[in-house]
Design brief:
Blueprint (H helix, E strand, L loop, with lengths): L4 H12 L4 H8 L3 H9 L7 H11 L3 H14 L21 H12 L5 E5 L6 H12 L7 E5 L9 H9 L6 H8 L5 E5 L5 H14 L4 E5 L9 E5 L16 H12 L8 H10 L4 H9 L6 H10 L13 H4 L1 H9 L4 H9 L9 H7 L6 H13 L4 E5 L2 E5 L2 H14 L2 H20 L7 H10 L1 H13 L3 H17 L3 H14 L8 H17 L3 H18 L2 H17 L3 H18 L2 H17 L3 H18 L2 H17 L3 H18 L2 H18 L2 H18 L2 H17 L3 H18 L5 H17 L2 H13 L21
Parallel strand pairs: 1-4, 1-5, 2-3, 3-4
Antiparallel strand pairs: 6-7
């Protein structure tokens, strides 16, 4: 053995370092006899500490250290430590390719020595950790050791559990560190949250004394040790659209687990998508939901989940309690909170769709400062009970829906739910009223975005005001939000708010008269936009009387403007012009430049609709220039649409396209859906006139989808007639007749004629279609169009389950 093995390797390193046995003994702090015994093979299996002293004295690099350690183990006839292996997975890992690649790279390339997988209970940390250890095992010469901590009930059991997993008898972390020494091992601690302090102390010691050790941890809370790398395990990917349902990890997991229970949902992926979206891609929740397919249809399951997450239970009887139900998983985290954290956690359930620090500081009781609120929110985020999203320079906080429901139950049990809901509603009332003053002018887009982000909270606030019969709050909230609902296309929902607020306000006090007038104005406007002209007229006439009684000229002028819109769509261009002129006079008396610009814009709109293109262009150019000065994005978009349309009817197609593309870009930037729909409509006509029918169909289809979604039937009819014109150009006369019939039915229902400027094009299309078809064929197609619901009109002709869209 003198020439080889550990002794020979040690001798070669000593000689290469130019040391005698005496010199090495002195540098290593060992006796000369010990060195001699090791080199001659009289002493075997030096302890890890001795190996480290020798390697340090010889100044060995990492490769030589590992070879020296391996030689010592081999010569001593000892295998590496009898490590507890990771548990074998019981099911296929669905998805997680991105997560597995990212985490494995960190460990394989030794980018970090401590990696913590974190995330809420049920997100799949343990299953991902199993996959990671399997993926990287070959890169750790001394093996992978799995330390399961979930079953432990106290921190004192962590060290014995780790020692047993390593195959050691000692109860001292220093002795464990000595045994591990410089071995290249991966130590995986699973489920550390409830014994976090003990794990922190052990990991700190091991990382300090075991330079080749790598540690992988799964925990709902961070260890916060120096050098810790954190990977937040995300939920599974959700389906982005109905055409790619099978690509969603969440859908695939549900299908796999449901199939394993004997139920194949392959033909119901749309309902599966509904379920997994509600569960926000949480793997445990999806598995628990899929388990219910043994007794429920997916439709029943989806409906039940809309009401409550209580059915997410009944997991494997061999699983721990926290894995047998979603509430069990959340309760496990909740039990680890301090009293202050529990109170904050419960109160945060009043927020829907997230919140900001400012909102939390204003709404939550017991929080004396923003700093205190930030500290508590930070602690809950560290424990994976809330998540943080940073966007546009603002941090926003969210709870998963299932966690929020659990927190709401806690708030109810504390007896504080109603008080918290009232504080929440009053905060969002103040936000709505503050925003209202910025929805016209240069800050319009910013404030529209802010309200859109808070839409879920605004819905909760409105619901509270209606549920509690809080008349003033309901009127102020609904009245403050109608303009937002118009600009962002929430016509139907806004109408419901306004109508219900008006019902509450029937016996409102005199001091609420301005609020009632505003609500009638908003209700009339949104009814008009959905072509409910009689309802709109009734509400607007009521608002007009109220504003006149209040002596409010600005309110009166705005109502007159809306009444002019109703007259315009009903084809009464004289009445429309009179109303807009009256509105202009009031705005002029107030010196309201923005109001005057709007009057010019509407007068120009009426002019080009009735065919007076020159007058329309003059009016709309004046409005455009004023809107640019006052910074009204909506007004600018409208004036550009009108000018583009006028250019289109004048045959100036290049100019028309430039103006309409500008209006489209501006409307998209503002999120102004009516402007987007109108711009697409007119751009489609431009392309039809150029003979580019494929491009025209694409633009008109998009426009029709937007108008139908908004509920604007007046404009939907015009787009259908344009699609008919394209169909006829392509020789699809029967389909063109179908579309013309559908448009005719819409106009009959809303009692609004074809706009005068559009009549010539429609008549030309109708004449061409009638000339191309036999009368019986024409009448059948026309009648089918009239019978088809608007929502399904563009889905194909003839209607039937075997047909989808009839391609133009």
């Amino acid at each position: 053995m003198q020439g080889g093995g550990f002794g020979g390797l040690l001798r070669r390193h000593r000689r290469a370092a130019g040391l005698s046995q005496e010199g090495l003994a002195e540098l290593a702090g060992l006796s000369v006899d010990a060195i001699a015994a090791l080199e001659r093979g009289r002493r075997r299996a030096p302890r890890a500490h001795t190996l480290r002293l020798l390697a340090d004295a010889l100044r060995l690099g990492e490769p030589d250290r590992l070879l020296l350690t391996a030689a010592a183990r081999q010569e001593a006839g000892t295998a590496r430590l009898p490590l507890r292996p990771p548990p074998a997975p019981t099911s296929e890992l669905i998805g997680r390719t991105t997560e597995l690649t990212a985490t494995s790279r960190l460990l394989k390339q030794r980018i970090t020595r401590l990696l913590t997988l974190t995330g809420p209970g049920g997100v799949g940390k343990t299953r991902l950790m199993q996959a990671i250890t399997s993926e990287v095992a070959d890169g750790f010469p001394d093996g992978v050791c799995w330390v399961p901590l979930a079953p432990l009930t106290n921190a004192e059991a962590v060290l014995p559990t780790m020692a047993a997993s390593l195959g050691l008898q000692t109860q001292q972390v220093e002795e464990i560190a000595e045994q591990i020494g410089r071995s290249g091992m991966l130590l995986a601690f699973d489920n550390c949250s409830h014994v976090l302090r003990a794990v922190e102390e052990i990991c700190a010691t091991l990382l300090e004394h075991c330079p080749n050790l790598t540690i992988l941890v799964s925990s709902r809370e961070l260890l916060r040790l120096a050098g810790e790398s954190v990977y937040v395990v995300p939920a599974l990917s959700l389906p982005h659209d109905e055409d790619h349902l099978e690509a969603s990890e969440a859908v695939r997991l549900f299908v796999d687990r449901a199939t394993a229970r004997g139920y194949d949902p392959a033909g119901q992926l749309d309902q599966v998508a509904r379920v997994v979206r509600r569960l926000e891609g949480m793997p445990l929740a999806i598995e628990l939901a899929a388990a219910r397919t043994n007794v429920m249809t997916i439709e029943e399951l989806a409906g039940e989940l809309e009401v409550s997450f209580g059915i997410l239970a009944g997991g494997s009887r061999t699983a721990s309690p926290r894995q047998q139900s979603m509430y069990g998983a959340i309760e496990w985290s909740h039990a680890l909170l301090t009293p202050a954290e529990r109170e904050m956690f419960a109160q945060l359930s009043v927020f829907a769709g997230g919140w900001t620090l400012g909102a939390a500081s204003s709404v939550l009781s017991g929080v004396t400062s923003r700093v205190e609120g930030l500290d508590l929110i930070g602690r809950l985020a560290d424990k994976s009970l809330i998540k943080v999203v940073r966007r546009g320079g603002v941090a926003r906080y969210y709870m998963l829906a299932v966690i929020r429901e659990f927190a709401a139950d806690r708030l109810q049990a504390m007896g504080e739910a109603e008080a918290a809901a009232e504080r929440h509603a009053l905060y969002y009332l103040s936000l709505a009223e503050e925003a209202e003053g910025h929805l016209r002018g240069p800050e319009q887009g910013e404030w529209l975005d802010r309200l859109e982000v808070e839409l879920a909270n605004l819905r909760v606030a409105i619901a509270w005001s209606l549920r509690t019969n809080s008349v003033a709050e309901a009127l102020r909230l609904a009245g403050g939000l109608w303009l937002f609902c118009y600009l962002r296309g929430h016509y139907a929902e806004g109408s419901q708010w306004l109508e219900r607020a008006l019902q509450l306000g029937e016996s409102a006090s005199a001091e609420l008269a301005p609020a009632c007038a505003k609500v009638n104005l908003g209700a009339g406007t949104l009814a008009f936009l959905q072509c409910e002209y009689d309802v709109a007229t009734d509400r607007l006439q009521t608002a007009l009387a109220q504003y006149k009684k209040l002596g409010d000229k600005a309110g009166t002028a705005l109502v007159l403007q809306r009444l002019g819109g109703v007259a315009r769509e009903r084809g009464d261009y004289v009445a429309a012009e009179d109303l807009h002129c009256e509105s202009y006079d009031l705005y002029e008396s107030l010196g309201d430049r923005a109001g005057m610009a709007w009057a010019h814009n509407h007068l120009g709109f009426v002019a080009w609709l009735r065919g007076d293109l020159e007058i329309g262009a003059r009016r709309c150019r004046r409005a455009r220039d004023s809107f640019r000065v006052v910074g009204d994005g909506e007004g600018l978009a409208w004036s550009l649409i009108s000018l583009g349309t006028i250019a289109q009817y004048d045959g100036e197609l290049v100019e028309a396209e430039d103006l309409l593309q500008e209006s489209l870009a501006l409307s998209q930037r503002l999120g102004y859906r009516e402007g987007v729909a109108w711009s697409l409509n007119q751009l489609g006509i431009v392309e039809r006139r150029r003979g580019l029918t494929e491009r025209a169909v694409h633009l008109l289809d998009e426009s029709l989808a937007e108008h139908r979604d908004l509920g604007d039937r007046w404009r939907s009819a015009s787009v259908l007639e344009e699609l008919a014109a394209v169909a006829q150009q392509r020789g699809r006369s029967e389909y063109a007749a179908f579309l013309l019939g559908a448009a005719d039915e819409v106009r009959d229902v809303i009692r609004a004629p074809v706009p005068r400027i559009e009549q010539a094009d429609r008549e030309a299309t109708l004449a061409a279609v009638e000339a191309a078809l036999e009368r019986r064929t024409f009448r059948a197609a026309w009648s089918a169009g009239r019978a088809a619901p608007l929502a399904a009109v563009a889905d194909g002709y003839p209607p039937g389950p075997e047909r989808t869209r009839d391609p133009l």
